[in-house]
Each structure stands twice: as C-alpha cells, then as structure tokens.
Specification:
The structure is a homodimer. In chain A, 41% of the residues lie in helices and 16% in strands. Among the domains of chain A are: 60 residues, Orthogonal Bundle (Arc Repressor Mutant, subunit A), CATH 1.10.10.10; 73 residues, Roll (SH3 type barrels), CATH 2.30.30.90. In chain A, strands 3-8-4-5-6-7 form a six-stranded antiparallel sheet. Chain A binds a DNA duplex through helix 3.
DNA sequence: GCTAGTTTTTAGACTTGCCTAAATATTTTA
DNA sequence: TAAAATATTTAGGCAAGTCTAAAAACTAGC
C-alpha cells in the first residue's frame, strides 16, 4: 500500500499536527524525520499527489482524512507492539520504542487484530498513550501536566510527554511509574521546582521533570 | 547491518544450497527471487564484495561462513515468528508464511531471544522444519519422504516439503497433520499412488502428495 | 514599504535495486 | 568438435528517496 518512508512521514505529520492548529512546517518535519528540508518538500509533493496530505507551497502541510486514518493505524500498530514487548516479552518501557518503530510497518490486518485480542484489547501503551481501535477511535484523557498543579493538589500519573530512554530511566530510578499517586507538597515560585510525595517517600523534582509528566486529578 | 534485499538473497541462496553440493546458479536464484538474471548478477557482486558469498563468474555462488551464519539467523527469526503466529495468535499453518517473511527482518537481538524464551525454546516450526538456535545450530532430523516407504511400513509425519497454502489446506481437509502416524497399506507400482492408514480412516493419495510429506520411521 | 534574514522550493546529482537489450561464455547435440 | 541452444554478464537506463547548492518566497525590523 504505502512505502516505509511514506508511512513514517504520515506518522511524523500526525504527531506534529497534534501540537497546534497550524499546518506542519517543512523545517519541523525535516527535524522530526532527521532529514533535509529539500527531501521533505519532495516527499510532501508525493503524498499530496496521493491525496494523503493537503499542501500549499510555503503554507505548511496538513493530513487529509485518508492520511489521518492511515497515520492512526500506524500509531495503533506501534502502541500494540509496545504493549506486547512489555507485557509478554519483559521489555522495560524505555526499550520498546525502536523495536516498535520497525514492527509498526508489518502489513497484515489479521496480525494486528489477533495481537489486539491476544493482549486483551489494551486501551493504553506502556507510556500511557491511548491505543486507537481498528476504526481509529481512541479516548482522549483529560490529563494535565504535573507542572500545572499547585501546592496541595494531587492526582495519578497517567502518562509521560517525553518518552526518551533517558527520562524513563530517571523515572524508574526514582520509582515514579504509571498509576502512582503524586501529591505536590511544595512548589518553588522562583524556578517551579517541586517537592512531591509518592507512596513511600518524598522527592524534589525540577520543572524539566514535572513538565513531562501527565497527571489525572 | 544488511538491507532487506541482501537478507532475502542470502536466505534464498541458503535454501537453494541445501538441495545440492553445487553452487547456486544465477537462473535458479532469479526464479527463487522472482526477478531477472541480470539483477541477480548485480546483487551477487555486491554480496561478494561484502564477503557474504563466494562467487566466480559463470560458476555459481556459494555462501561464505559469514553469509551462512547470517542466513541461519534470518531462518531462525522466520521460524520463531511462525511458531508465535500459530501458538499465540491462532493462525493456521497455511497463513503464517507471508507475515513471517516480513517479521524475519526486524532487527533486535533481544526481541528474538525473548521471543524464543516466551515460546519456550521451540525446536521446530509449524511445518516441522528445525529452528536454529542463537548460534545457528539445529537438529537435522533423519526423515524420509513418504513416497519412499514400501507397503507395510509406517512412521510419523514430521514435516512437509511443500509449504504452499494449497498443499497445507489439502492436508488439513484430510486430517493429515504433524505428529500423525501413517502406515502404507498399499502402493501402486504403476503410478506410485498409495493407500495409507491414518488413525481413524484410510485414504488414497497421489505421488504428488506422498513426495511432499516427510516421515520418521 | 523596503531590505535583511529566514524558510522553502528548485535543480541537479547520487545510491540502491531493479529493468531491457545486447554481448559473451558455457553446454549440448549432432 | 563445431554449430546451436542456453546461461550469464555487461551496458545503459529508470524510480525512489536522499543530498547540496542556489534560487525564490515569505516575514520582520526599521
């Protein structure tokens, strides 16, 4: 159906489009794809001819309805494979991304529907991100960044914004995990750093950390 | 490490090399790869430069030690994924090949070693073919074709030579499966067709069938 | 509202893996 | 053992996806 490269561009546009209403710029896409702006222009033209994106020169690019559906199926596959790797093969949450980047391109409807069943229709991946169903529908959680909470507020950790291996390892080391209850004991006005309470201990974290953790109140 | 195409050529040479002592001919490889002889020559040159095959113009091609090890790892991955698809996702043995053709190229040592563990270190794939271990070692079964048996001999079905969907479906339909005991009740001199005894029933099969079934006596 | 700076696109080229057509080597056969 | 048939390689080209360098279009600052 679509080439590896086309699928990766669609996914990248999808992820960048989430962050704003505006179209995705050539440079942003080049950065995301680790390539040059000129290569991006070429590919966008191709995707545009295939009606997967809506594109006007110098105006940025948007996913078409077809493009969005395709991107959602790739995201679905990526996240299901991540669940498989963690739940069935014992990977930790910081190890799954690269492998899932490859697995997400395997083309078999049956493979994915059976995998979904085998995993018991999970709703979220190991980082708390929602898994679209076969039709591309998924729950949007009403979550907020931990950095938005004030002193005294508390909630449950439901996701991470940064899924880099470094950040996830930092969380592991400090026993901060999905589903944990976090209470803000104190917040420093000067730099936004926080003293937070976990079940067994309290911990001081920088805004770099608190602004990458999603909380449901 | 290696491109998709390189891996597929190595695997094809490996499978063709099994059938004879001689080098693999350009035409045989072209047939196996569903491509043209000239394309094969190009790729063989490339693999030869990378020391994965030993090649002399007009003399056929052989896998080098490195090439053989690489091919065995791809075969290992292919067969482990086939076991996964059948045992965990409920695929039937005639549905697994195409999907495994894609899955076998996923590059992650850990993925394969953990999959192997998860599947409890299977020794054979759903068609009875041996699965090489991480070092590339595998058991060579002492098996023979059912067509070689004489009237009165019996044995256990341990594998199939032809893994085409059509053949496997024929076997399913007639309840001929891995592990079944088969006895030759009668063999026709004229065309080699056989009357065989399965557990519950007897059945007449053509030499086309008996020469694609492996038996262990 | 013009100019300087930035972003984006175009032009031309490279690599991989494939193709067709033609040339060359090997094998078969008479 | 030489011509005919077959197998293999070479030569030249094409598409996808990338690159660099240069041109064109936008955007901001004065």
């Amino acid at each position: 159906m679509f080439s590896l490269s086309e699928e990766n561009y669609l996914k990248a546009i999808f992820h960048l489009q989430k962050n704003s209403e505006a179209g995705v710029s050539t440079n942003a896409l080049a950065e995301e794809m680790q390539t040059k702006a000129s290569s991006v222009t070429d590919m966008i033209k191709k995707l545009s001819e295939k009606k997967l994106v809506i594109y006007e020169k110098y105006r940025g690019v948007y996913l078409s309805e077809t493009g969005r559906k395709t991107a959602l199926q790739i995201v679905r596959k990526h996240r299901l494979w991540e669940v498989f790797l963690v739940e069935k093969l014992g990977f930790s949450w910081d190890e799954v991304h690269e492998v899932a980047e490859e697995l997400e391109h395997i083309k078999s409807e049956k493979l994915i529907s059976e995998l979904d069943k085998f995993l018991n229709y999970p709703k979220r991946d190991p980082h708390g991100d929602p898994i679209p169903d076969a039709k591309g529908h998924f729950q949007v959680a009403n979550k907020t960044l931990l950095s938005n909470l004030s002193k005294g507020e508390k909630g449950t950790l439901v996701g991470v914004k940064d899924s880099s291996s470094e950040f996830l390892k930092y969380l592991d080391k400090n026993a901060i995990a999905l589903g944990k209850t976090i209470e803000v004991l104190d917040k420093e006005d000067f730099d936004g750093s926080m003293l937070i309470q976990l079940k067994e201990k309290s911990l001081r974290i920088s805004p770099m950390v608190s602004s990458n953790i999603y909380i449901k109140i």
